[in-house]
Design goal:
Blueprint (H helix, E strand, L loop, with lengths): L5 H36 L2 H18 L1 H15 L5 H30 L9 H6 L10 E5 L8 H7 L3 E6 L5 H12 L4 E4 L3 H8 L5 E6 L9 E5 L2 E5 L2 H9 L3 E10 L2 E10 L1 H6 L2 H18 L26
Parallel strand pairs: 1-4, 1-7, 2-3, 2-4
Antiparallel strand pairs: 5-6, 7-8
Length: 323
């Protein structure tokens, strides 16, 4: 009579997990809001210095990601850079990564006061305007280089209808807060889950720019193409959307040229005719080659801590591990 069914036990456990998750999400949200409030109480210069100091400390304490990053640097640069040079580059990359959320905070504040004009290189917009003039829009292949959160501000400021594909954060309170900050740019977000259908419905008018971050490992469903000298699993679904919608693919990024100063840099493009003629592996190869040139040009602004080459093509695996 005192026995408890397995269903009730699981139901109680689920409630406890749900409560603990809610508490964790709220505490994370509170910690982030306290940190952002403290940063905004400082001048921009002091906020950036604080972010860089925190990044240097994190680089030394975050051993797991530090190992991944140094392995990536070894793979890309080999003996062409000394161990000391690789560590210095990694520390600067950590600083660059730490500046991204701080710059987003200040950009959100400047957007409300119409103060963004002075942080962007206006000449780049005129120089590259023709690249974005396709009647159905363009696909922008970019990645975690420079200050990617400033990209939406640059594009919407220059009159483009800008959308970005992004995965919502697991913490819904932080995701809502981040969406509010991004909303200051006028950016529209396309959820990564179901993004293909949404992208197919998006390209329909001149000035449409849909940005996708294609510099992360795409798992077993990706297409392997050379990236910085080694095969990397690459997400080709957005590239196939461009092929189906008959639109060009542009490769570029918004990079940091000075504290709170940014420029759009263009690495190459694949015309509508070339997109229609190429298959998925060729599109992935060309996108990776162009974005790889940007990484080599701005290595201290790329996210080296990601396991970009975590898997190998089936042909390179031992026979007992091949699918």
């Amino acid at each position: 009579m005192f026995a408890t069914s397995a269903h009730k036990v699981e139901k109680r456990a689920a409630k406890r997990r749900g409560l603990l998750r809610w508490i964790r999400f709220r505490l994370e949200w509170l910690a982030v809001r306290c940190l952002t409030t403290a940063l905004l109480a400082l001048s921009p210069e002091r906020a950036f210095r604080a972010a860089k100091l925190g990044a240097r400390i994190a680089c030394r304490l975050d051993r797991r990601h530090r190992r991944v990053a140094l392995a990536n640097l070894d793979q890309v640069y080999g003996d062409t850079r000394s161990a000391r040079e690789k560590v210095d580059l990694l520390e600067r990359a950590y600083e660059s990564l730490a500046l991204v959320p701080v710059e987003l905070l200040w950009a959100h504040r400047l957007a409300r006061s119409s103060g963004l004009a002075r942080v962007f290189d206006a000449e780049a917009a005129a120089r590259h305007a023709a690249l974005f003039a396709h009647p159905r829009g363009v696909l922008l292949a970019t990645g975690h280089l420079g200050s990617w959160e400033m990209g939406p501000f640059w594009f919407t400021r220059n009159g483009f209808h800008f959308q970005a594909v992004a995965r919502p954060l697991d913490n819904p309170y932080l995701d809502a807060y981040l969406s509010g900050l991004r909303g200051g740019s006028g950016e529209a977000l396309i959820a990564k889950l179901g993004a293909v259908r949404a992208m197919l419905d998006t390209f329909s008018r001149p000035g449409t720019v849909v940005a996708v971050l294609l510099d992360q490992h795409a798992g077993s469903t990706g297409t392997y193409a050379d990236f910085l000298g080694s095969p990397a699993s690459t997400n080709v679904a957005p590239l196939l959307v461009a092929k189906r919608k008959r639109i060009p693919i542009l490769i570029g990024a918004v990079v940091r040229v000075a504290p709170m100063r940014f420029r759009f840099v263009y690495a190459g493009s694949i015309s509508e005719a070339e997109v229609r003629a190429a298959d998925a592996p060729e599109l992935a190869r060309r996108v990776n080659a162009a974005f790889g040139r940007l990484v080599r040009a701005y290595p201290d602004q790329w996210m080296w801590t990601h396991r970009r080459w975590r898997s190998r093509p089936a042909a390179e695996l031992p026979p007992h591990r091949q699918p």
